[in-house]
Each structure stands twice: as C-alpha cells, then as structure tokens.
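DM between two lab members

TW: hey, do you still have the Large ribosomal subunit protein mL53 entry open?
JB: yeah, one sec
JB: this one, 98 aa:
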Amino acid sequence: MITRFLTDVRVTFNPFSLRSKPARLFLSLIPPNARADGMKIESKMLPRTSKEPASLGLKFKDGKEMKLDLSAMRITQVVEEVDRHSRSLARKEELSGN
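TW: and the structure you got?
JB:
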C-alpha cells in the first residue's frame, strides 16, 4: 500500500466486531515511522455494545478527502481505493520532476 501521500488517517471501529477487521488490518499496514514523517493518525475505539459501523477517513497531500464505510468492504478493496489515488499522485509527481 502506498502511504507516502497520506496526511491524515481517521479510523473508528469496534475492536470486538467481526466487521471491523478491515479497520484493524488497515492500521497494521501503516508503517511504524508514519507519524514521524508527518502523518496524523487518529483511532477511535467504540464500546463493545456499539452498533456503529467501522469507518475510515483519509486525507491526501493534494487535499482530497476519502470516507470509506469499512463494514461493507474487504481489506483488498480498501487498499485498492487508497492505492488508486496514490498512484495518480505519484504519476503527477513524477511528471512534474519532483
């Protein structure tokens, strides 16, 4: 997963729910030095009895915001959505010579 274009990650999930697995896996895919590189990461754990669905909010360096409902997605779909925009940003960066 391409994470160098992410500036802000917000995850809300119930750690005891089976539908929260993509949220937990997404957090595990973020590199350990991401905060040191300037990424803001917020994770909110819901109580065990909560029926609120897991959600993921992302902000990219170009200002685009992405909000994903993780209760209906698999981790492969989440990574695919994030990488799709990250690849376009990498292409723009490469063409501009940075």
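TW: got it. The two ends are 21 Å apart (CA to CA). DSSP finds two helices and four strands in the chain.
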